[in-house]
Description:
Elements: H1 2-12, H2 19-28, H3 35-45, H4 50-58, H5 62-81, H6 85-102
Amino acid sequence: MEYVYAALLLHSAGKDVNEDGIKKVVEASGAAADEIRIKALVAALEGVDIATVLASAAAVPVAAAAAAPVAAHAAKGEAKAEEPEEDKEAAEESGVEGLGALFG
């Protein structure tokens, strides 16, 4: 993650996002720079307009993006709560029958 932050820092400072710049920023933060990860990031960012990506990412409301997983989890919980007791009893009985078949 620190490599992405380094790239964003270089971009916001108006510097070229390249291997040497990212390495310097990461090392200045006190972390050890991994050449392979730096090369992979620079290759992935080749041809990408970072300003456009940041502008489109800022357009997504944070609250809505964070609320979606919470709503899905709540809906899943409601579905489990509505399971009738009869189904639970039938499942338990069939489990006991299956256990009897194991011992003949």
